[in-house]
Write a structure and sequence with these properties.
The structure holds two protein chains of two kinds. Chain A is mainly alpha-helical. Chain A is built from one helix and no strands. Classes of the chains: A mainly alpha, B mainly alpha.
C-alpha cells in the first residue's frame, strides 16, 4: 500500500488528492457556465 | 540577503494595497470589493485567508505527533471548505447578497430574516471574539519574527500590525484581496518546493512512507492510543478523540461559517467566477495543509534516521542547536545516568535550568521529531526547515509564513471592523445618515479592532501560563463559536424558506451560549486554559472522561439546529410572500 500503515491513512492521503482533482475537473467543466451580470433589480 | 527579500516583499504588498486604495470609490468597493473581483484573485484570497501560520506551523507540528491520519482534515478542508462551500453555499450567498444589497455576513442573515437584532448580535459576537482569533495569529507571527530577526516581541508585534493596518484601512477589501492573491502565490510556490524536496531527501514516495511506517511508537504516545505515524490512533482512545473531534471535524466543518470567508462569495460578479475559483481553490488548499501535514509526519523519518548527520544531545534528544536554547530540562529515568555525570546528586523529577548549564552528551543517534525540536510541537516545522532544507529555502519559507499570517490577519481586521461599524453602530440612530458614512465608520472600526487584537496579543502570553497552546486554542474557540451560533442559521437562510425569524434568533442564541458553556466548563483543552471553571468550581472541567475531549461543536451545532427546526415549525413568518419571491430563480 505504497508504504502506508493502514487503509484509513492510505484513503486520507489519496482522497485528499482526488477531491482536489474533483474541484479542478468541476471548475474546468463549468468554466463558462453561470455567466450573468446579476441574478435582482429590489 | 534576508532583509533584502523582506523589503522587496513589503514594497510589493504596499503597491498592491495602494492599487486597492486607488480603485476604491465607495461603500460597495470598500466592503465587498465592488462585487467584481477576478476568480483567480478570489480563489487565492479565500485560500490565503483560510490558511494562517498556525495551519502550516501549528497543525504541521501536530502532524509530527499524530501522523498522517490528520490528512482527513485536508480532505475535509477541500471537500467542505472549497467544494461544498463554493458550490452549495457560495452561489446562493452571492445571489442573495446581491438581491438584498448585503455587504457583510451578519447583514446577509439579518436582511434574510428581517431582523436587525440578528445583525447586531452577530456583529457583536464577531467584534468580541474574533480579536481573540486575530490575536493568536498575531502571536504566532510576532514570535516567528522575533526568532528569525532577533527583534523584541513587542516591537515585532507593533511593526507587523502597523503594516497590515495601513493597507487594510486605506485599501478596503480590494487592497486586502489584491495582497492576499500575491501572498497566496508565494505560499503556493513555497509549499510545492517543500514537499518535492522532502520526498527527494527521504529516498522517494514509497521509501519515505515505508520508513515512517517502520518507526516504533514511543511508549508514552502508545499509551494514549498512537499506533504509528501512518496509522490512525486506536478507536475511542484519547488521541483518537482529539484528532477526530477537534482537529478533523471541529476545524473541517467550522470553516463553513467563518464570516471572513463567507464575504468572499459576495465579491464576484457571477456564478461563473465561482466555478472557476473552485478549480484553483482545491489545489491551493491541498498544497497548503496537505503538504504541511505530510512534511510534519515525515520529519520523524528525517530526524530519527539523521539523514543529514546532525549533532543531537542524548540528554534531551534535541538537535544540538535547539538543545542550546532549552530553558530547562526535566530529569527522567532515561537521561538520569547521563545527567548524573555532571550533577551526581540529580534525581528523577528534578529540573536543570539553562543557567546551571544543561549537559548535552553529543550523539549522532537521531530521535523523533518532537524530541528533536526540544519538546515543542510548534517548533517541529521551523527546526525541520532550518536543518533539512537548503539555506535559500529558509528565506522563501520565511516569506511564506509572513504571507500566511498577513493574508489571514488583513481579512480578520477587515471583517471585525465592518462588523462593528456596519452591523452594530449603523443600526442605531439615523440610518440614512450613517449609511453615507459607512466607509469612514468602517475605517474607525478596523482601527479599534486592530488595537484590541494587538493588546490581546501582548497580554495573552503574559496571563496564560500554558502559553504554547494559545494559538491552537484561540483558533478552536472562534471556530467552535461560529459553527454553533451561525452555521444552522446560514444554511436555513440559503435553503429553507419556512425557517422563521423566531426560530433563527433562538438557534443563534442557543448555539452561541451552548458553545460558550462547553468551551468554558467542559472541553478541558479550552477550559483549563481559560481558568474560569477552576476559579468558580475548583476544577478544570465539570465532566471528566471522554466527554471532556469532545469538541464544543459536537454539542452546540446539533442543539442549535434542532432548536431552529422545532421553533420554526411552531412559528410562522409574517412576510412569507416576500421570502418566496427571494427564492425565485
Amino acid at each position: 500500500m505504497l508504504g502506508f500503515g493502514d487503509i484509513w491513512v492510505f484513503l486520507a492521503y489519496f482522497s485528499s488528492i482526488l477531491v482536489a482533482i474533483l474541484c479542478m475537473v468541476y471548475g474546468i467543466l463549468n468554466w463558462n457556465k453561470g455567466e450573468e451580470s446579476e441574478p435582482a433589480s429590489r | 540577503m534576508i532583509i533584502f527579500w523582506v523589503v522587496v516583499y513589503l514594497v510589493i504588498v504596499a503597491l498592491l494595497g495602494y492599487l486597492g486604495y486607488r480603485r476604491t470609490h465607495g461603500t460597495s468597493d470598500y466592503l465587498v470589493a465592488g462585487r467584481n473581483i477576478h476568480p483567480f484573485v478570489m480563489a487565492l484570497s479565500y485560500g490565503a485567508t483560510f490558511i494562517s501560520t498556525s495551519a502550516i506551523v501549528g497543525f504541521g507540528g501536530a502532524a509530527g505527533i499524530f501522523g498522517m491520519g490528520i490528512l482527513w482534515l485536508t480532505f475535509l478542508n477541500i471537500f467542505m471548505g472549497i467544494f461544498i462551500a463554493f458550490i452549495f453555499f457560495g452561489k446562493k450567498t452571492r445571489e442573495m447578497g446581491f438581491k438584498m444589497n448585503s455587504h457583510t455576513f451578519p447583514e446577509l442573515i439579518g436582511n434574510r430574516f428581517s431582523s436587525v437584532f440578528l445583525q447586531k448580535f452577530m456583529g457583536i459576537v464577531i467584534f468580541l471574539f474574533m480579536p481573540l482569533y486575530a490575536g493568536v495569529v498575531l502571536i504566532g507571527a510576532a514570535k516567528y519574527i522575533e526568532q528569525q530577526f532577533g527583534i523584541d516581541y513587542s516591537t515585532a508585534l507593533f511593526f507587523f500590525s502597523f503594516i497590515i493596518a495601513v493597507y487594510v484601512i486605506m485599501g478596503g477589501l480590494k487592497g486586502v484581496m489584491y495582497t492576499d492573491a500575491f501572498q497566496g502565490s508565494i505560499m503556493f510556490v513555497g509549499m510545492v518546493i517543500l514537499v518535492v524536496y522532502t520526498y527527494y531527501i527521504l529516498g522517494g514516495f514509497t521509501e519515505a512512507h515505508k520508513a515512517l511506517t517502520a518507526m516504533p511508537t514511543p511508549p508514552p504516545l502508545a499509551a494514549k492510543g498512537h499506533q504509528g505515524w501512518t496509522s490512525m490512533p486506536s478507536f475511542n482512545s484519547g488521541f483518537w478523540w482529539v484528532m477526530v473531534s477537534t482537529i478533523i471535524m471541529g476545524v473541517g466543518i467550522g470553516v463553513l461559517a467563518q464570516p471572513q470567508l463567507v464575504i468572499r462569495f459576495m465579491t464576484v460578479r457571477s456564478n461563473r467566477e465561482l466555478n472557476r475559483a473552485v478549480a484553483i481553490g482545491g489545489i491551493f488548499i491541498l498544497m497548503m495543509t496537505g503538504v504541511a501535514f505530510v512534511t510534519g509526519s515525515l520529519s520523524n523519518v528525517y530526524f530519527s534516521k539523521n539523514v543529514h548527520n546532525l549533532d543531537f544531545c542524548a540528554t534531551s534528544g534535541a538537535v544540538k542547536e535547539v538543545h542550546a536554547n532549552l530553558p530547562e530540562l526535566k530529569i527522567t529515568p532515561k537521561n538520569l545516568a547521563l545527567i548524573q555525570k555532571k550533577f551526581p546528586d540529580a534525581k528523577v523529577g528534578d529540573k536543570i535550568t539553562k543557567g546551571q548549564g544543561i549537559p548535552c552528551e553529543e550523539t549522532k543517534k537521531g530521535t523523533i521529531a518532537v524530541a528533536a525540536a526540544g519538546g515543542e510541537v510548534d517548533n517541529i516545522i521551523p527546526v525541520y526547515i532550518k536543518n533539512a532544507m537548503p539555506h535559500w529555502f529558509g528565506v522563501l519559507f520565511m516569506l511564506t509564513l509572513l504571507a500566511a499570517a498577513m493574508s489571514t490577519l488583513s481579512s480578520q481586521f477587515h471583517t471585525m471592523g465592518t462588523a462593528i461599524a456596519r452591523d452594530f453602530f449603523e443600526q442605531f440612530g439615523n440610518k440614512e445618515e450613517s449609511k453615507n458614512q459607512t466607509v469612514f465608520i468602517s475605517k474607525l472600526g478596523i482601527g479599534v479592532t486592530i488595537i484590541i487584537s494587538v493588546a490581546l496579543a501582548y497580554i495573552l502570553p503574559i496571563v496564560v501560563v500554558k502559553g504554547e497552546a494559545i494559538i491552537a486554542r484561540g483558533t478552536a474557540i472562534f471556530f467552535g463559536l461560529c459553527a454553533g451560533a451561525f452555521l444552522p442559521a446560514y444554511i436555513a437562510a440559503l435553503y429553507w424558506k419556512k425557517a422563521t425569524r423566531t426560530g433563527v434568533v433562538s438557534s443563534v442564541l442557543v448555539g452561541f451560549f451552548s458553545a460558550a458553556f462547553w468551551i468554558t466548563f467542559v472541553h478541558s483543552a479550552e477550559s483549563s486554559v481559560l481558568g474560569i471553571a477552576n476559579a468558580l468550581l475548583g476544577k478544570d472541567t465539570l465532566i471528566s472522561g471522554t466527554w471532556s475531549s469532545v469538541d464544543p461543536m459536537f454539542i452546540s451545532l446539533p442543539v442549535s439546529a434542532i432548536v431552529l427546526v422545532l421553533v420554526s415549525i411552531f412559528t410562522r413568518n409574517d412576510n412569507q410572500e416576500e421570502i418566496d419571491r427571494l427564492f425565485q430563480k
